[in-house]
Amino acid sequence: MSTLIKVTYLTNGRGTIVNFDKVESIYKVFDRNNGKMQTRINFDGERFLMVQEEPQEILKLVQDYERGEFQDTDWVDIEIPNLEEKLENSYNDFGNRGYGRNQQPQPYNNRRSYNNNYNNRY
């Protein structure tokens, strides 16, 4: 049976389940961007996951799981937009890219210009 523990992504705060039978190591690393220590979970190969939980918390959760005390998995409710909201957001994003509401992006002109005196070289 797999040891499945819920941890929280560092970047977006969403929960995910990790199979700790596949984990090679867990340790703290210093993030130069925000100047804080963070927890890194390494898997086989070069795959890793940055999480909010401390290594001590993760160790306690794994030990509790092995004793039969399962973790409380309260998930954060994420509001998923419906189709109309997705279309509206896409339309608004298009308007925020520098194109006006009535302007369209210009098509890419892939024709070569031969007016650069290439014929006068020889």
Q: Overview of this structure, please?
A:
The chain has a domain at 4-66: OB fold (Dihydrolipoamide Acetyltransferase, E2P) (Beta Barrel). The protein has a 3-stranded antiparallel sheet with strand order 3-4-5, with no helix packed on it. A two-stranded antiparallel ribbon has the order 1-2. It has helices at residues 55-66, 83-96, and strands spanning 4-8, 15-19, 23-31, 36-43, 48-51. The chain contains 2 helices and 5 strands. By secondary structure, the chain is an alpha+beta fold. The longest helix is centred in the last third of the chain and has 14 residues, at 83-96. Helix content is 21%, strand content 25%. A hairpin with a 4-residue loop joins strand 3 and strand 4.
